[in-house]
Specification:
The complex is a heterodimer. Chain A is 42% helix and 12% strand. Chain A is of the alpha+beta class. Chain A is elongated and about 50 Å long. By secondary structure, chain B is an alpha/beta fold. At the A-B interface, α2, α4, α5 and α6 of A face α1, β8, β10, β14 and α17 of B.
């Protein structure tokens, strides 16, 4: 998935930095540690801004190019922070066949927010995800990990209104 | 004394519709009524009938409750568990079954034709309790292998069983093990498990990991013994939090019981397993890319040979199998190769799990013997197409597979038959489509996926799939030419023949198979500029039936493009003049259609 660099300012704390260095230390002897380190770094910061990638590269003694290469290769690593209200619409095949594309369009229309982005105030983010495995409830979306299933486009205004 | 067991599905499907909160409510309710020592609530893996979730079964009666909500819990506890009267309105009934006759679960059409081997413990045991797995003959196969069989015996048994890789390729598992078995003890080797289930719409591996994680651990240890490896890796999608949690618990419990670790069963055999999490790259389901990813790099595939059996993870000989393949191993060891061979077709033995999804009544997981026809799976087990629509096609193999048209619905499903009709088994996603699905749009959907997921290493795949997508976009936009069909076929064949890994080699399949079976539909898009299924927006026009329109104006109010205007025409029996849509201004958002009370707006 195409990744856009973030426009939101980096606000990492000293504490987070220490946590990150502890993680890198933990994996010092593990072969192939970059992936688990990035995964835990994303848990600490919520996303992987360039500042965090740079810290990882310096501490691990590997090139920035290598870190950036891995961070942008996998769709789960995000370079943009999630919004306070994080909306994810499943575009797996089962959901797509049952109309999740229209659900996504509807949300974009209501919020004026294209998929894969975060509003500049950091309030909403909208992403199209791969199959989340709730195919029995298709089409499905999640808002802050709350699952909504068997949707039709006209449900969206009501659901989004709960999260003003 | 425990007199009743309540089994609640804790698979991802049911959890998404609150099954864990139902469990909590149930426990509270039982405590409130003083039944906590008589009734035991067990959270299990997936039952398979995800469409009816959340699902609950009460034993010893075997009462099957579907679509349970938190509000129903009080009634179930009071009426059924306290007074012994099943709550009729929640009991699952098949359509043609009399109201008062609750059949046992195994007799329902959904389960009757199934043969559950890989899923045998899913929905039966508590996956977070190793004792329940052991009570179901768990770790007996490992014991048998370590104490009664030589490593070569194990490989021979798997070879004889005819088991083929369930991840999609269908390579004989025993042969894979045999290739990696040389120089036991002399060289470091690895056993790996591919749990990076990336096909959109496939969730059988997840359900096995969630419902029966020990079966995979045990089989990996058996593989370790067979090839002479002492270390295993499970590469699991990070998007599967429940599966990861249960795997972590299972590994911990197995270590505590001495079933993983050093000197297993006192035989001197050592084996331990580590988890690695995928990060959402479809290509990592390819074996060499998966290993590159475990090594901490971008998940790009490597050329084969050397095959992983010779040079795999960290450059060492490695056996890599899929979750479902491993889930069959212990049963083959315990029951013998001959037992396994009784199921299936000549070249495809055993069973296959399918994830039924899309336009089908019983979405969920089913496990059937190889050779079952598509018709049996869709019409009988799957309960057919909902809303009286017609079956149009089934898609197997995800983005690598193809579409099977209605005319081939009686094809017995096995590896070779599916390849012959231009699709593939894949990991087992089976998406059903009805007449409202546009095949051009579907091909575009899959191609959009592969364009996104191509790792970029091979030009034919990276650039070729994008060019294919552009041609499809052109057709969908109404600018297609008939020559585009030949162009796509030519390009598709280049991509297939010049890509390094399975992703590129199969990426054009959705396009090729839809052109093969639904050429007419492409031609209609190109020549008539129409989408028969009414999906491709650019080829559609929204229109208002002037005689149905009551002139309320809701459509015009909600039109973001001011494309709807009032006409002079007043329909007979109506008071207000009807509206019409200006096709030049219409952005085809569909907002008007949603708001129209008398359903006067239609797509043409």
């Amino acid at each position: 998935m195409k990744k856009n660099l973030t426009t939101v300012m980096f606000r990492g704390t000293k504490e987070q930095e220490e946590q990150l260095y502890a993680v890198i230390e933990k994996y010092r002897e593990t072969p192939g540690a970059l992936m688990p380190i990035l995964q835990e770094a994303q848990e600490i910061y919520g996303y992987l801004p360039i500042e965090v990638q740079r810290m990882i590269a310096l501490r691990m003694g590997i090139s920035m190019e290598e870190v950036y290469g891995v961070a942008t290769f996998y769709s789960q690593f995000v370079l943009n922070p999630k919004g306070e209200i994080a909306i994810a619409v499943c575009l797996g095949t089962a959901c797509y066949v049952k109309g999740s594309g229209e659900i996504l369009d509807k949300i974009t229309q209501i919020l004026g927010l294209p998929a894969g982005s975060t509003t500049s105030d950091g309030k909403y983010s909208l992403e199209a995800t791969r199959c989340i495995g709730a195919c029995g409830l298709a089409p499905v979306l999640t808002i802050n990990n709350e699952v909504y299933g068997r949707l039709v486009p006209s449900d969206m205004e009501g659901i989004l209104a709960k999260y003003k | 004394m425990i007199r009743s067991h309540v089994l609640i599905c804790g698979g991802t499907g049911c959890t998404s519709s609150n099954s864990l909160k139902i469990q909590e409510a149930m426990n509270n309710e039982l405590t409130a009524m003083g039944l906590e020592n008589e009734v035991k609530v067990v959270v299990t893996g997936c039952f398979g009938l995800c469409a009816l979730g959340p699902i609950m079964i009460v034993y010893p009666e075997g009462t099957f409750y579907s679509n349970v909500t938190i509000a129903d819990v009080h009634e179930i506890v009071e009426e059924h568990l306290l007074k012994g009267r099943p709550v009729e309105r929640l009991v699952y009934h098949e359509e043609n079954e009399s109201k008062h006759h609750a059949t046992s679960l195994s007799e329902t059409t959904f389960y009757k034709k199934q043969k559950r081997i890989a899923l045998r413990n899913c929905g039966v045991i508590n996956p977070e309790n190793i004792d329940e797995y052991i009570a179901m003959d768990g770790y007996q196969a490992l014991g048998k292998v370590l104490t009664e069989m030589t490593p070569d015996d194990v490989i021979q048994t798997i070879l004889d069983s005819g088991l083929r890789g369930r991840g999609g390729g269908g390579f004989p598992t025993g042969l894979k093990w045999k290739f990696a078995s040389g120089n036991r003890g002399g060289i470091k080797k690895f056993v790996a498990c591919n749990a990076d289930e990336g096909d959109p719409g496939a969730f059988m591996d997840r359900s096995i990991l969630e419902g029966d994680p020990h079966a995979v651990l045990e089989a990996m240890a058996i593989a370790g013994y067979a090839i002479g490896a002492d270390e295993g890796y499970i590469y699991v999608r990070a998007e599967y939090p429940i599966a990861i949690k249960r795997l972590e618990i299972a590994i911990k419990q197995a270590r505590e019981y001495g079933l993983l670790g050093t000197d297993i069963f006192g035989t001197g055999f050592n084996f331990d397993i580590q988890l690695r999490f995928g990060a959402g790259a479809f290509v990592c389901g390819e074996e060499t890319a998966l290993m590159t990813s475990i090594e901490g790099n971008r998940g790009e595939p490597r050329p084969r040979p050397p095959f992983p059996a010779v040079k795999g993870l960290f450059g060492q000989p490695t056996v890599l199998n899929n979750v479902e393949t491993y889930a069959n191993i212990c049963q083959i060891i315990l029951n013998g190769a001959d037992w396994f061979k009784t199921m299936g077709t000549e070249k495809s033995k055993g069973t296959k799990v399918f994830a039924l999804g899309g336009k089908i009544t019983n979405t969920g997981l089913v496990e059937v013997p190889m050779g079952t026809t598509l018709r049996e799976v869709i019409e009988e087990i799957g309960g057919g197409i909902p809303n009286g629509k017609k079956f149009k096609a089934a898609q197997t193999g995800g983005p690598s597979g193809g579409c099977i048209p209605a005319s081939l619905i009686d094809t017995p499903i096995d590896y070779d038959n599916l390849i012959a009709i231009g699709s593939m088994m894949g990991s087992g996603g089976l998406i059903v489509m009805d007449e409202d699905t546009c095949m051009v749009d579907l091909a575009r959907f899959f191609l959009d996926f592969t364009v996104d997921e191509s790792c970029g290493k091979c030009t034919p795949c990276r650039v070729g799939t994008r060019r294919l997508l552009e041609i499809l976009d052109k057709i969908i936009a109404g600018n297609g030419e008939l020559e585009d069909l030949d162009r796509m076929e030519e390009l598709a064949n280049y991509i297939k023949s010049a890509s390094l890994c399975g992703l590129g080699q199969t990426a054009p399949n959705p396009v090729l198979s839809t052109i093969r079976y639904f050429r007419d539909e492409y031609v209609t898009h190109i020549v008539d500029k129409k989408c028969p299924a009414g999906v491709c927006k650019n080829l559609l026009q929204f229109k208002i039936d002037l005689d149905k329109c009551i002139g309320c104006g809701m459509c015009a109010k909600n039109c973001p493009a001011d494309a709807i205007i009032r006409t002079d025409y007043i329909a007979p029996g109506h008071k207000l003049a009807s509206f019409e849509i200006d096709p030049k201004k219409c952005v085809k958002c569909g907002a008007c259609m949603e708001k129209c009370k008398p359903h006067a707006i239609y797509k043409d």
